[in-house]
């Protein structure tokens, strides 16, 4: 009998874009071989292999179904995952018994079939099949099934990466990202970390009034040392729920990176933090593009002018094409209402982008300037400022979470507190 881990789906969701709040953890570096019977399934698996969450997996597709798989593994080792398409019942069970005789221990099997029957499902589980997916399947069904094999229910949840980037320099993307992270930590009670990726000119340390001796540069320039303990030593504690991976903000070296320079840092952060907010600098390089495409959710910050409109449109088009199985990026307008400055109205901006902004944050240099100079968040400067609610709206949209309800105090609360004190 095939000895695989069990992880199955009783019901299959629609083979369309995943629900807004669905979070599928990326698969590790594994080998996947699919044996399909129909060109439709082969096309879906091929499209799934191009999804960002299977970016590290090595996928190979062959036609021929069960018979081709059995023949292939008579003289070759089996991969980490085998995906089999079968439209029969008896042939499927018989084929799985034959496959077990040539299968290496530890290989996991996903079956794609047309029969929706609980008795068949039980037989597949008994034979050790990891997942059974009803056809017809879409790319996101294949992505979900393969990724879930490596995300055990009892394991710690893999963190959600949120990337914040400005459509143009000077639009306040860093300020927005830092205040949104503050809202995620304070109002949504999620443990979060801000990773300042602008190593030369990053402002997260200033905004949070932190000056740590180490930060993200130590991890990027020492990839062999990156693990959970090493990253923990680099984090600077801002609040009970918020930490900072600060940029050095020095010019004593040139920060030229390869495309995958931050991969080890991001993977380690995912394993330790529920929410990671990337403050991405306004530059276009291999690693910034990779960070954006690889993020779970994206926020573009734009000012209401023509250059920002063009750049936002270009970012939207690229990200939607590169992430067909993810929801589109979000965007917000910032610095709206600068005196005597001609602006593009929010409605016209939305018409060109074909998407509404999450919020439009007004231009208020007094409070934002004071917060920046004091190393504070807007919520610390003015607890009732209207922009605080906007930051919370963005945080909720990006994380899919609602505000944590605060316990209501009763008339007896003061007395109870006094008794506890005694």
From TrEMBL:
Superkingdom in the source lineage: Bacteria
Domain AAA: 160-317
Segments for region (Disordered): 1-22
Keywords, sorted A to Z: ATP-binding, Nucleotide-binding
Entry-linked Pfam families: AAA_31
InterPro entries assigned to the protein according to its UniProt record, in alphabetical order: AAA_dom, P-loop_NTPase, ParA/MinD_ATPase
Gene3D superfamilies, per the entry: 3.40.50.2300, P-loop containing nucleotide triphosphate hydrolases
Protein name: AAA family ATPase
Organism from which the protein derives: Bradyrhizobium xenonodulans
